[in-house]
Design brief:
This protein is mostly beta strands and 194 residues long. The chain is globular, with a radius of gyration of 15 Å. The protein has one domain: Sandwich (Immunoglobulin-like). It contains no helices and 15 strands. Strands 3, 7, 8, 9, 10, 13, 14 and 15 form an 8-stranded mixed beta sheet that branches. A hairpin with a 7-residue loop joins strand 13 and strand 14.
Length: 194
Amino acid sequence: MPTHPFRTRTLATRSTAVAVGLSVAALTLGLAGPASAGSIEVSDPRDTAHGSDLRSVEVRNLERRVVVVTTHTNLRRDSASGSGGAVFLDTDPADKGPERVFVGGYFEGTDYQLLETDGFNRRTWGEPVEGSYELTLDYRGDRVVMRMSRAALGNPEDVRVAVTSSGTRSDGSGEAVVDWLGAPRSFTPWVARG
């Protein structure tokens, strides 16, 4: 079922707002490992003491869609948190680096988009991708669920992700807190279509 690319679904509401801009550093790649069948879950050991703190990432490479679930500590509805994130999707083992980026805000009333990209740097982010995708915010479960149709990703057999989340410090400094899954710009192992 097609979804509107500018809607965020929470447990109780659906709303639209301005797009979230995330600044991401230059391209660095993780090492490719063997593909896991169907799904993989990776824990993040670093704590950031912010609602955007990334705890784990699950990647499900299903028959019709790819689902990425990020788990956080104390995800908040309040826009003052500035919480957001980016999931970089590598769908072509022959072409190093991500081909898509799913970017969005993690506070209530924000937007998201699945974009073409040729790397991690925001300047390489391109046009929105045609196809079905959605982002669901679960504040009780501290989870963000991103669902993408296989067609929106170019029908890949294998997929791997690099994940970052960020937010604004609550001490009034206005400084950003950034949390990558593992090392910055590193990918999970490949997940084979299951």
